[in-house]
Design goal:
This protein is of the alpha+beta class. Helix content is 64%, strand content 8%. The chain starts with a helix and ends with a helix.
């Protein structure tokens, strides 16, 4: 109940965001979408979300036809939260700060299209909040319950946009993961070097501002060879290998001491579990489930110890 209450809040906040930026918008028509699919006009994130919406619509259609209501609702849940809110809206926010704000206003029928279709897909599962938001959108008809249920359009799927957006998401996610692992304050913006090939360089240059903003970077320098200096953390994404410069945001001595304490603690746990598993009496007499859980704990502890040692080694070489 608490989880889906949060989901309702997510839907409501997304609706409010779109409504604030769609003042005086008119109801969109399907025949308006085709012309907007011109790659020279629509932004990458618009082509991506439109394509994902078609794939999600097809999945929901298939699952409803097979009475797999849980799978249909789960698909919509993750699309709305993970893709529409966590990625699409965040990309839009960056775009709205750029100089071409007027161009974005001209094509705001795309976000309207996505939100309208998402609400209609969600309506059978969540009738009240979807009706309330839909009534506030530019629309035709008296109720969302009588609106046409969305149908997937294969010709609205831009495969190149899906691939390109996936690579940008992968890079941002990897940088965020490294920031989290190294406990970097979200307020600190980091310099980043990125080595990539000529094919990907254009994509990075076109979306550099979005990458800098969403990954909380100071800047991205695209290089032919990574330059090693000071304390850096290396990462790898589908767009290439990168280095994050951490000298100015981490107290190296303090972090080294923290890691050494963690390593000693994990070593004690690993040794204890290893001793238990090497005891024939324990293996023979303990319930199979207990032995299995102990082996899993041992493997996880070993993996954690390895990662901590790698982190400490990185500090030692800085």
């Amino acid at each position: 109940m608490a989880g889906y209450r949060s989901f309702c809040n997510k839907i409501w906040n997304a609706g409010r965001f779109f409504l604030l930026n769609m003042k005086n918008a008119k109801p969109y028509r399907d025949d308006e979408i085709g012309p907007l699919l011109d790659k020279k006009y629509l932004k990458l994130e618009d082509r991506w979300i439109l394509g994902r919406l078609q794939e999600v619509t097809k999945s929901v259609e298939d699952n409803l036809g097979k009475y797999r209501f849980h799978e249909a609702s789960n698909t919509l849940y993750h699309f709305f939260w993970d893709e529409l809110c966590d990625w699409y809206i965040e990309f839009i926010k960056v775009s709205m700060t750029e100089e071409n704000l007027e161009d974005r206003k001209k094509i705001f029928s795309m976000p309207l299209c996505v939100l309208d279709a998402s609400l209609r897909l969600l309506h059978p599962f969540m009738p009240f909040i979807t009706e309330e938001l839909w009534q506030k959108l530019p629309h035709e008809g008296s109720t969302i319950a009588l609106a046409t249920f969305p149908e997937a359009r294969e010709d609205w799927i831009d495969r190149e946009a899906l691939t390109a957006m996936g690579m940008l998401q992968d890079l941002i996610s990897e940088i965020r993961r490294i920031r989290t692992e190294n406990r970097i304050d979200p307020r600190h913006e980091l310099p980043c070097q990125l080595r990539t090939n000529a094919e990907h360089r254009k994509l990075l240059e076109q979306h550099q501002q979005k990458l800098v903003s969403l990954a909380r970077l100071q800047k991205i320098i695209i290089v032919d060879e990574l330059r090693i200096s000071g304390f850096q953390v290396r990462g790898l994404s589908s767009l290439g290998e990168f280095l994050l410069q951490l000298d100015e945001v981490i107290d190296i001595k303090k972090e080294r001491n923290r890691l050494m304490r963690q390593i000693e603690k994990i070593k004690t746990e690993v040794n204890g579990l290893e001793h238990r598993l090497s005891n024939p009496t324990f293996i023979k007499k303990a319930p199979a489930e207990v032995v299995r859980v102990t082996k899993e704990r041992f493997q996880k502890a070993q993996l954690k110890l390895t990662k901590l040692k790698e982190q400490l080694n990185g500090f030692s070489q800085s």
